Amino acid sequence: MYALVADLYPICRSITGDGFRETIRRLGQLVPLRSTEVPTGTPVLDWTIPREWNIRDAWVADAAGRRVIDFRRSNLHVVNYSVPVRRRLSLAELRPHLHALPDHPDWIPYRTSYYAESWGFCLSQRALDALPEGEYEVCIDSTLENGSLTYAECVLPGQEDGEVLLSCHSCHPSLANDNLSGMALGVALARDLATRPRRRWTYRLLFLPGTIGAIAWLARNEDAARRVRHGLVLSGVGDPGPLTYKRSRRGAAVIDRGVEHVLRHAGSRGGVLDFLPYGYDERQYCSPGFDLPVGCFMRTPNGRYPQYHTSADDLDLVAPAHLADSFARLREVVEILEHDRAYVNLSPRGEPQLGRRGLYRATGGTDLPERELALLWVLNQSDGGHSLLEIAERAGMPFAAIRAVADELTAAGLLRPAGDHASPGPRTDAPAGGIESARSESRGERS
Ligand code: ZN
């Protein structure tokens, strides 16, 4: 994962353009990807696909022709989506176009101007303070032309009718934690899932530009959106902070309870944040017309670490150990999604005699008491109405321990899956009505 972050780090990405496409091309060497191009001007929900932005070079040169700000040294130096510019101006005229961070004088800020035509440069406060009065030449060799927006999907089919949506915004230039770490985690998980002989759910991993990409995907994939049972936005998963989860709009969907369960048993100090209609693309997936059960899986939340959206979000902020921890916990979440279901106790009148069936064998093992207690919890709660995750929560035990004994009890003929009634939670069905009503509302507004 770290090697992938380092490989993608130098590329100048944006919400459209060749940097994004090159990123997708490299990801496609690691996981099967299908990419989609949505032409400029295409209406997507309430938005319109913008013109495509590409940049070759950009600089500010002093009177002697020396580049005092140089895109080739850092792609953060140019305000992302800057319109092309070539002119001479005084420092006073240039200054409104320069952005710096007085509180962190060595860092370059990351700024964008996607939906308002403007141009600008970002530089360290120290470099800004060092600019002498005089005339400067400014060049932004960019194009803003009709083209398309790119997004890519990796779809790994499963056996049941339902999807797990994993969404990674992939539009930031040289920033390591936000968003390259999330993309690397998504790739690692997809590679892990691809090796499994059996998947319960279809996994759909999205690499898309933030906001407009999620909106474009939703506009073009209402059927797939309707099949989403669980979902996560992956972002900011490589920094040293503890894992944090932001709940979906629903608040108590299986994904919400599952991630909370994993973080609690992992002893994460990061904790759980309630839903907030701000942040990443959960804003789009959790808009009321979709209301998908999609939370946000991250370490330090966006905006809560000083390096966020600056040149200090670099390859030193992200570490392999943090990425590995994020991967291990995310895999535990997937285990819950894959195996959470309700069971029926086939010998519910009194406790079945477990010793006779060899289920109490290993007396004396140190972990035996918890396993025995787990057996009793599963037998007691398996009336078809309580899922394994609910049992694990009530028992205060890790899901993996509860699931292991459910497998044993099933093999011993004491338990069977509760069938269709086992699909976890009453609110996991995709809100088809919500999508339909949103569609008719937007028709109504336009008419
Ligand atoms: Zn960001």
Gross morphology? elongated
CATH superfamily membership of the largest domain: Zn peptidases
- Structural Rg: 25 Å
Which secondary-structure class do the elements indicate?
A: alpha/beta
Bound compounds, each kind once, are:
zinc ion
Instruction: Supply the number of helical segments.
Output: 14
Query: Low-confidence stretches at least 5 residues in length (pLDDT < 50)?
Result: 420-447
Q: Which strand-content bin applies to the residues?
A: 15-25%
- CATH class call of the largest domain: Alpha Beta
Sheet of most strands = 8 strands, mixed
Write a brief structural summary:
The chain folds into three domains: 2-50 and 148-339, 3-Layer(aba) Sandwich (Aminopeptidase); 52-145, 3-Layer(bba) Sandwich (Glucose Oxidase, domain 1), CATH 3.50.30; 342-417, Arc Repressor Mutant, subunit A. The protein is built from 14 helices and 19 strands.
Helix/strand layout:
Layout: H1 2-8, H2 18-27, E1 34-39, E2 43-44, E3 47-48, E4 52-61, E5 67-70, E6 85-90, H3 91-94, E7 98-99, E8 121-122, H4 125-129, E9 135-145, E10 148-156, E11 163-169, H5 176-194, E12 202-208, H6 212-220, H7 222-226, E13 228-234, E14 244-246, H8 254-265, E15 272-273, H9 282-285, E16 294-298, H10 320-339, E17 342-345, H11 368-381, E18 383-387, H12 388-395, H13 399-411, E19 415-417, H14 432-446
Parallel strand pairs: 7-8, 11-12, 11-13, 13-16, 14-15
Antiparallel strand pairs: 1-10, 2-3, 4-5, 4-9, 6-9, 10-12, 14-16, 17-18, 17-19
Bound molecules: zinc ion.
